[in-house]
Amino acid sequence: MKVIGMTGGIGCGKSYVSAKMQLHGIPVYDSDSRAKLLTATDPAIKEALTELVGPTLYCPCGCGVMQKEVLAGFIFGNPENMARVNAIIHPRVLEDFRRWADAQGSKEFCILESAILFESGFNGEVDYTVCVDAPLPLRIKRCVKRDNTTEQAVVARINSQMDQEEKCRLADFVIVNDDVQALEPQISALIDNVRKL
């Protein structure tokens, strides 16, 4: 089975493209949502994060809910703390992905979708990488609408991510999701190209 890594900056529409690829029968592992689930449920992650961040990280009522503002305060503006948190979460996500991929059986392809595919080193788990791209003004517009937030907040999030041009440069393939170019021909071409490689 060939593993395709799917990435793209906020507002580029990588999840939308992944959903389109699922219509072609390609299973998708959403590492961002799985990481959130594991952070809330995996005892080893919870123990290590609590030891690192402090006892107030998870709700004291015992419901297992992480208090996001506590984690945000710990990592905001502190790359070293961010790296320490990632060193706890990322290996468990990779283990989870490998189990999931093994369970896909005889599928021809699967997709590892991750906003931080290159930053996390997850690209080392895939055969080919795809970056979904979109013009910056459109990305901002999409995020403002989707998240009901301000343009300033979206720009701050974009600026905190890896440069989109760099992601496109590192990727084996680029899909343009600009609401002008049709996605389906690009997806079909991607599948054909990966099949030939």
Question: What order do the SSEs take from the amino end to the carboxyl end, as H and E?
Answer: EHEHHHHEHEHHHEH
Q: Whole-Å distance between the termini? A: 12 Å
Cα Rg: 18 Å
Tally the structural domains.
2
What would CATH call the homologous superfamily of the largest domain?
Answer: P-loop containing nucleotide triphosphate hydrolases
With strands numbered from the N-terminus, the spatial order across the biggest sheet is 2-3-1-4-5
Structural class: alpha/beta
Task: Reconstruct the topology from this structure.
Blueprint: E1 2-7, H1 14-22, E2 28-30, H2 31-41, H3 43-53, H4 68-75, H5 79-102, E3 109-113, H6 117-120, E4 128-133, H7 136-147, H8 151-160, H9 164-170, E5 173-176, H10 183-196
Parallel strand pairs: 1-3, 1-4, 2-3, 4-5
Task: Name its key features.
56% helix; 197 residues; alpha/beta
Describe this protein's structure.
With 197 residues, the chain is α/β, with parallel strands linked by helices. The protein folds into 2 domains: 1-27 and 109-197, P-loop containing nucleotide triphosphate hydrolases (Rossmann fold); 32-103, no CATH class. The protein has helices at 14-22, 31-41, 43-53, 68-75, 79-102, 117-120, 136-147, 151-160, 164-170, 183-196, and strands spanning 2-7, 28-30, 109-113, 128-133, 173-176. The chain has a 5-stranded parallel β-sheet, sandwiched between helices. Helix 2 packs across helix 5 (79-102) and helix 3 (43-53) packs antiparallel against helix 5.
